[in-house]
Amino acid sequence: MKPKNLVIFDLDGTLIDSLAGIAYCANMVLEQHGFPKRSVDEHRLFVGSGLRELMRKAAGLKTGESTALLDTLYDNILQVYHENYTIYLTLYQDIDVLLRKLLENKISIAVNTNKNHQLTLKIIRHLFDPSIFCEIIGSNHGFERKPDPKGAFHIMEQCGVKAENTFYVGDTSVDLKTAQAAGITPITVTWGFRTWEELAPYKPPHRIDQPLDLLPFLNL
């Protein structure tokens, strides 16, 4: 395996634990529109492809069904989430230690997420110094949502690193597919929004069970 100079991270379920807050906001919108609330575990399975897709699944709408209603649900959760994005929001244990160790060893870090870009920036400013990341890409920022690899390609270009010298770290099959489409070595985490039993059928080549387990992959 060639030396790695860049690690691209997913955000939710990888760097941050935002699930309870997302569920809180989604349930507030569902209730406003007469839909039943969903459990946190149900929302766990809905996340990964952006808030619009989350609301479609949470409301039980089929793909392409009730697009006007879905537009309203999406607009509403964006507003509610912008107003409540810090609720139940935490870093996963040792993420701060991991990022500091990477930066100390001159390894660039970036974020590639399907979360709305403006929300992504607000959350990163709340939890991190944004300047530590060589690039931050959320949805609605000029690129298709993951697993489309264009955001990852842009990150590598901006950070000046080739795919062969990059790791992609994430917690869902969407992240795995993104990495594979971009020619990047994927590392799948098990502390996020998917269990290993849910991820194993996608045959991830590398698995880590806690953040500091990434360091040996970088010879640190």
Quick overview of this protein structure:
The chain is α/β, with parallel strands linked by helices. It contains 9 helices and 8 strands.
Structural features, described:
The structure is a single chain. The protein is α/β, with parallel strands linked by helices. The protein folds into two domains: 6-16 and 91-218, Rossmann fold; 19-84, DNA polymerase, domain 1 (Orthogonal Bundle), CATH 1.10.150.240. The protein has nine helices and eight strands. It has helices at residues 19-32, 40-46, 51-58, 67-84, 95-104, 117-127, 150-159, 173-182, 196-199, and strands at 6-9, 16-17, 90-91, 108-116, 133-139, 166-170, 185-189, 207-208. Strands 5-4-1-6-7-8 form a six-stranded parallel beta sheet, sandwiched between helices. A two-stranded antiparallel sheet has the order 2-3. Helix 1 crosses helix 4 and helix 3 crosses helix 4. The radius of gyration is 17 Å and the shape is globular. The chain starts with 5 loop residues before the first strand and ends in a 12-residue tail after the last strand.
Give descriptors for this structure.
220 residues; alpha/beta; DNA polymerase, domain 1; six-stranded parallel sheet
